């Protein structure tokens, strides 16, 4: 049986209320008595009840985090930043994956309400605004990370995807590429539109044409989607000399597809990714990509939510909206080179 306050009181020869005050750090308890109580608690292996503390403070000390998929390494780095910031403030995380499924979204909202999370960070790009409103309806503050419905959130952290995509495209143009293609993820909403827009803006700035067949949107952002998408570009009568991929996962599939087709990268085609997930430095060849500050984005989202929770009565409705846009940096590796003569 776990040790209780009653057990500590008996061993320290004090009252229950004295134990409670001492463990809360009350100045009303003499330091000598408090030390005796803390020593008794340690000897008995006492752990305070989170449920009991929640009833007293009306706070669970838990933050809900919603991601699109738990198997995407992009989210793991954002989660690391969230967790570090949350732990520093004494919070734990309650995580769920929406899998872009509306029924799962409804279930997640219900379960997080039942677990009385103090606030929610939505990292899923496609989590619906309707379900988000359910959190707000019950007074649970929300911070969004890179969500496609930017206008529906008062508090959010975003990466400047247009700027990142422009830098990637400019890198290829500076190498001498003129027929550059774009492979996007049609399910990613605002994110893929911003990255496509950045690509188009930089191509327009260089006065380079974008034939319709050089832009392809496929329904997904995994390696298998990149593998399927590259077949389209290989079937063109005039192949692109460089390919801008929506993310690193798709670029990994593209590298596999080109290898299977006997096309060397970058000699036969340059390939870029986006996000700088951890294993892109170890692909063959190492992938040129755009490095989002993922851990910092996660930490900033957590800090913004914790600040909201510290506001008077957590009055998020009257608090000033906060939207922060962050920028990353281009990482040039061995998957890009000037086009063959």
Architecture overview:
The protein is α/β, with parallel strands linked by helices. It has three domains: 5-48, 434 Repressor (Amino-terminal Domain) (Orthogonal Bundle); 60-160 and 294-327, 3-Layer(aba) Sandwich (Rossmann fold); 161-292, 3-Layer(aba) Sandwich (Rossmann fold). Helix content is 44%, strand content 16%. The strands form three sheets. It has a six-stranded parallel beta sheet with strand order 2-1-3-4-5-11, sandwiched between helices. It has a four-stranded parallel beta sheet with strand order 7-6-8-9, sandwiched between helices. A two-stranded antiparallel ribbon has the order 10-12. Helix 1 (5-12) packs across helix 2 and helix 5 packs parallel to helix 12 (294-310). The protein is elongated. The mean pLDDT is 88.
Please specify the SSE layout and strand pairing:
Blueprint: H1 5-12, H2 16-23, H3 31-44, H4 50-57, E1 62-67, H5 73-88, E2 92-97, H6 102-114, E3 119-122, H7 129-137, E4 142-145, E5 155-159, H8 161-175, E6 180-185, H9 190-205, E7 215-218, H10 223-234, E8 242-245, H11 248-260, E9 270-272, E10 289-291, H12 294-310, E11 322-326, E12 329-331
Parallel strand pairs: 1-2, 1-3, 3-4, 4-5, 5-11, 6-7, 6-8, 8-9
Antiparallel strand pairs: 10-12
Helix pairs in contact: 1-2, 1-3, 5-12, 6-7, 8-9, 10-11
């Amino acid at each position: 049986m776990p040790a209780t306050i009653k057990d500590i009181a008996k061993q320290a020869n004090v009252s229950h209320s004295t134990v409670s005050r001492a463990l809360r750090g009350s100045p009303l308890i003499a330091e000598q008595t408090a030390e005796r109580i803390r020593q008794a608690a340690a000897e008995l292996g006492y752990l305070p009840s989170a449920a009991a503390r929640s009833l007293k403070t009306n706070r669970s000390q838990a933050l809900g985090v919603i991601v699109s998929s738990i198997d995407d390494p992009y989210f793991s780095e954002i989660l690391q930043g969230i967790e570090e910031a949350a732990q520093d403030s004494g919070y734990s995380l309650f995580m769920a994956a929406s899998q872009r499924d509306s029924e799962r979204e409804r279930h997640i909202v219900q379960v997080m309400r039942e677990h009385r999370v103090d606030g929610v960070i939505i990292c899923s790009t496609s989590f619906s605004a309707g379900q988000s409103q359910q959190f707000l309806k019950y007074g649970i503050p929300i911070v969004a990370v890179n969500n496609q419905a930017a206008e529906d959130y008062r508090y959010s952290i975003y990466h400047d995807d247009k700027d990142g995509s422009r830098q990637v495209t400019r890198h290829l143009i500076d190498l001498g590429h003129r027929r550059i293609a774009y492979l996007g993820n049609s399910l990613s909403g605002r994110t893929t539109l911003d990255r496509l827009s950045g690509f188009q803006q930089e191509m327009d700035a260089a006065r380079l044409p974008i034939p319709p067949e050089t832009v392809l949107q496929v329904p997904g952002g995994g390696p298998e989607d990149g593998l399927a998408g590259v077949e389209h570009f290989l079937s063109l009568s005039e192949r692109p000399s460089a390919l801008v991929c929506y993310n690193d996962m798709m670029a990994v599939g593209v590298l596999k597809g080109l290898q299977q087709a006997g096309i060397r990268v970058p000699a036969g085609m340059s390939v870029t990714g986006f996000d700088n997930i951890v294993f892109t430095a170890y692909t063959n060849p190492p992938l040129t990509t755009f490095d989002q500050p993922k851990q910092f984005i996660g930490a900033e989202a957590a800090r913004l939510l914790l600040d909201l929770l510290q506001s008077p009565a957590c009055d998020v409705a009257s608090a000033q909206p906060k939207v922060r846009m962050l920028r990353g940096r281009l990482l040039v590796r061995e998957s890009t080179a000037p086009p063959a003569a």
